[in-house]
Amino acid sequence: MTHSAHDRPRRSxxxxxxxxxxxxxxxxxxxxxSATPTIIDFWAEWCAPCRQIAPIVKDLAAQYGGxxxxxxxxxxxxx
Length: 79
What we know:
four-stranded mixed beta sheet; 33% helix; 2 helices; disordered N terminus; flat
């Protein structure tokens, strides 16, 4: 099974802590089969509450780095 660069998780460049972007193609490996507890933020560009909690998600990634994985999934681009 091959994956394109588009399918691979990406680091959020604006974040100091590691927050991976996951897609439908990468969610199973990065979240469901992860040996590390995972916090997933389902978000959309049009969602005001999503924008409001973004700093909290970044804080969680910094606080729990190494003990928990923090990922985000854009619900407009994934089902």
